[in-house]
Design brief:
With 86 residues, this protein is an all-alpha fold. The protein has a domain of 52 residues. 79% of the residues lie in helices and 0% in strands. It has 3 helices and no strands. Helix 2 packs antiparallel against helix 3. The longest helix has 26 residues.
């Protein structure tokens, strides 16, 4: 019984995008990123986007409990952002 593994469509396009970026990076003489460096860069980007969304949501939040939850989430993401920047 053959088991076939397939990559999700989104991951496949991300892989193609990464390969194209790496080819461009090699053409410019910059070193290729390791898997850990790529994951770290992607996580930093995700944290930045989430922080922006939460700050925008905080601007419109009126309920004290909701505002506190947003403040806590923002503080947690800011700590993570500092950790990822090291």
């Amino acid at each position: 019984m053959a088991v076939e593994y397939r990559m999700a469509r989104g991951f496949e396009s991300k892989d193609v995008e990464f390969q194209q970026a790496e080819a461009g990076r090699q053409a410019t003489g910059r070193p290729a990123l390791t898997a850990h460096e790529r994951a770290n860069r992607e996580r930093r980007h995700a944290v930045q986007l989430t922080l922006a969304r939460l700050c925008a949501e905080l601007d419109h939040a009126t309920a004290p409990a909701h505002r506190q939850m947003l403040h806590d989430a923002i503080a947690t993401l800011e700590r993570e952002q500092r950790t990822l920047s090291k």
